[in-house]
Design goal:
The chain has 129 residues and is an all-alpha fold. It has a single domain, classed as Cytochrome c-like domain (Cytochrome Bc1 Complex, Chain D, domain 2). It contains nine helices and no strands. The protein is globular. The structure holds heme C (HEC). Heme C binds next to helix 3, helix 6, helix 7 and helix 9.
Amino acid sequence: MYLAILLAFAVPAHADTRSDYLLHCSGCHLSDGSGTPRSVPSLREDLGRIVTVEQGRGYLVRVPGSSQALLDDAGLAAVINWVLTEFSSATLADDFVPLTAEEVKGARQDVLLDPLKFRAELWRKYLGS
Ligand code: HEC
């Protein structure tokens, strides 16, 4: 009991980004990021490509599941960066610049009302067929 209290103070917030992912995202996206066909997208396929365009970086933050998670800006940035390197390394460029807390702060205030439409437009405009 006392040990638990001590640990709670000793461990800084977001010490374990994987736990944050499991707590805030895996309920829908599953622990390996594979999602559920036709209802929850996989985080293992296109994200590395999406993040190459500025609007795509914002998109990863602005989808409701990200932007409304009970995580602070630094914590959400860490989880998204973790998702990219952990699940999407196959499509992630070597020169990928991690999202910052500041970037996340701005983007998450602008929650996407129609993420699927935004994604389709993003793809059509910047990422080809
Ligand atoms: C309640 C279920 C749910 C939770 C929790 C959730 N998501 Fe999602 N996520 C979705 C759904 C559904 C979509 C598809 C877009 C939409 O309809 O919102 C999505 C889309 C995404 C996308 C875009 C994927 C693509 O290929 O277009 C990313 C990135 C993402 N979520 C990340 C996260 C992260 C990071 C968390 C945790 C902080 C999270 N999500 C939590 C359900 C969820």
